[in-house]
TrEMBL record:
It holds the Pfam family Inositol_P. This is Myo-inositol-1(Or 4)-monophosphatase. It comes from the Bacteria. The lineage of its organism: Bacteria, Bacillati, Actinomycetota, Actinomycetes, Micrococcales. Keywords: Hydrolase, Magnesium, Metal-binding. InterPro entries: Inositol_monoP_metal-BS, Inositol_monophosphatase-like.
Length: 274
C-alpha cells in the first residue's frame, strides 16, 4: 500500500518540475511582453503558454512514477487510465497567472493527491520567484523549505493583535460586487486585509503565521487542494468546499460560487459563513 511519505516525495518532484518551467520566464522588458496569453472567459482570467507547459511537466513527472493514478489539472481537466488506482492528483500549474504576467512574485505550482474517499494525503506549493517550497503529508505536519532551511509550520501566533485577513475576489463582476459588499462584515475583528492573487500561497501564509486567517468563496479545487492541507497540517482550522466527486474532483455542483474555502486560528472559525 502506498504511504503518504511516498506520495509526498512524488508531489515534491512534480511541483519542482512545474516550478522549473515557470522559472524560465524572462523578467526583462515590459511586464507581460513576449508572453503568449489567451483569456479563459472572464476578463482578467488569463492563461499563458507557461500554464500549459508547466501542467504538462507536472503530469509527466507524476505519470512517470504513478501511471495508474487519475489526474485533475486546471488546463487539461481530469484524465483517468483504463484501470485507475485509488489515488487522484489535483494540480494547478500556475496559481497566480496574472501576477506571473505582470512580474509580481506571488505565483506557484500547486500539487496535491487524495484517495478514493476524497481524503487529501499530500500537497506541495512551490513558489520559484520566492524561493519557497511549502509541503505537508497527512499526519506528518507541514514544512517550509527556504534558503537552505527547513522550518516546521504551526500557523498563526496565538493571542496577537493587529490581525490580518487574506482573501480574494472573483473574475465574475456580479460575484465580485457581492464579495466587495460583504468585505466590511468579513473584516470585523481584523486590523487589515491582504489580497495576493494566489489562493495556494494565501493558505500557505496562514500556515506559516504571516496571515491570521484566509477566506474566499468560489474557488476551484486546484486552487486550494495543496494549500488547505498545508494549513491543516500546520494546526489551522480549515473548511473546504465539498467535492462533486472524489473520483472526478471539482467543487460541489450545488453552488460552487457560494462555497467557502477558509483557514485560520480555531477561534476565528465563526467568521466565515456556511
Amino acid at each position: 500500500m502506498t504511504d503518504t511519505t511516498e506520495l509526498l516525495a512524488v508531489a515534491r518532484r512534480a511541483a519542482a518540475a512545474g516550478a522549473a518551467v515557470l522559472a524560465g520566464r524572462s523578467i526583462s522588458g515590459t511586464a507581460g511582453h513576449g508572453l503568449e496569453t489567451t483569456n479563459k472567459g472572464e476578463a482578467g482570467d488569463w492563461v499563458t503558454a507557461f500554464d500549459v507547459a508547466a501542467e504538462n511537466a507536472v503530469r509527466e513527472a507524476i505519470l512517470s512514477e504513478r501511471p495508474d493514478d487519475t489526474i485533475t489539472g486546471e488546463e487539461h481537466g481530469t484524465t483517468r487510465p483504463a484501470e485507475p488506482s485509488r489515488y487522484r492528483w489535483s494540480i494547478d500549474p500556475l496559481d497566480g497567472t496574472t501576477n506571473f504576467i505582470r512580474n509580481i512574485v506571488y505565483y506557484a505550482t500547486s500539487v496535491a493527491v487524495a484517495d478514493s474517499d476524497g481524503v487529501w494525503l499530500a500537497g506541495v506549493v512551490h513558489a520559484p520567484a520566492l524561493g519557497r517550497v511549502y509541503s505537508a503529508a497527512r499526519g506528518q505536519g507541514a514544512q517550509l523549505e527556504t534558503g537552505g532551511q527547513t522550518i516546521s509550520l504551526s500557523g498563526p501566533v496565538p493571542g496577537r493583535t493587529g490581525l490580518i485577513l487574506a482573501t480574494g475576489f472573483s473574475y465574475d463582476p456580479l460575484t465580485r460586487a457581492d464579495q466587495s459588499a460583504g468585505l466590511a462584515a468579513l473584516m470585523e475583528g481584523f486590523a487589515d486585509v491582504r489580497r495576493l492573487g494566489s489562493a495556494a500561497l494565501d493558505l500557505c501564509l496562514v500556515a506559516d503565521g504571516t496571515f491570521d486567517a484566509y477566506g474566499e468563496r468560489g474557488l476551484n479545487e486546484h486552487d486550494f487542494a495543496a494549500g488547505a492541507l498545508i494549513a491543516e497540517e500546520a494546526g489551522c482550522w480549515v473548511r473546504r468546499p465539498r467535492l462533486r466527486s472524489p473520483l472526478d474532483g471539482g467543487p460541489s455542483t450545488e453552488d460552487r460560487l457560494a462555497a467557502w474555502m477558509c483557514a485560520g486560528a480555531l477561534e476565528l472559525s465563526g467568521k466565515f459563513p456556511l
